[in-house]
Amino acid sequence: MTPPPSLQDLIDIVYQDAPTQDLLDLLVTASATVSQLEAVNDALIGHFVDRCRRDGRTWSQISTALGVSKQAVHKRFSGPIADRLVSQTSPTLERFTARGRSALAAAGSAARDLRQERVGAEHLLLGLFAEPEGVAAKVLTAMDVTRARVVAALPLPKPDAAADDASQASDASQASGAGQASGAGEPQRLPYAPDAVAALRDAVAEALELGHNYIGTEHILLGLLRDPDAPVAKLLEQLGASAPESRVRISELLRGYASGTAPAS
Q: What is the number of structural domains in the chain?
């Protein structure tokens, strides 16, 4: 195996990169060098973890190869992998279930009907209600969080009644997702706002941490709740859908599905 840089190699690099030879400047440069090495180390391992997952290797196999617990692998690599799957402008949607993609398409419809130029996290939440048989909608309904209550609580311009009816009628028929290129005759799909990108990134991270190889509506809901300081997470908390209770209800619902089959998520 090719040997990594030796301690002396790294010391020499610090002396070369430091602005002066003052010991404090050298210390600061050494600290920055170590941080860069740690980032590269994580990226290197994360790259091959992601390749193993794409090749169908299980989290158990990966954790055994690394000599750590499966939970430790989930926590360490879910974030970096999610970052690669969800870019700043065009989240990768191939791992989303049909209901998940439909919910994303409905989020785009909600944003357009509210005359918004981008799909925000609040629209992702509204989109979940377009799939009433999805896990997220079932969990929200069980906690008495309805689309009407969400719309009433959001500080957004409300569409007129006709537009709202048209939106709800078209939500369930769309399944390609906002932010992708439009086809002939279709309305231009809107880009994602930073808070929506963050929520989708967190949805992917939640799915990875749960050991799932798909992203469904339940993961989108968990992604919206992952950052407790996010406005949508605070809104859900106020409406009675706290992150801990939502997670418990989602887990219970998933356990109710037949073993070895993907849930209607």
A: 2
| Domain contains 85 | no
Residue 115 in any domain: the answer is yes
Same domain, 107 and 233: yes
Please check whether residues 168 and 234 belong to one and the same domain.
yes
In which domain, by residue range, is 158 found? 98-255
How many Cα atoms are found within 13 Å in the side-chain-facing hemisphere of 85?
A: 28
pLDDT in tens, 235-260: 999 999 999 999 999 998 888 764 54
pTM, full prediction:
0.62
Alpha helices in the chain (DSSP H): 7-17, 23-54, 59-66, 70-85, 98-113, 121-128, 135-142, 147-153, 161-171, 194-209, 217-226, 231-239, 243-255
Phi, psi of 248 (to 5 degrees): -65, -45
The whole-angstrom separation of Cα 129 and Cα 209 is: 24
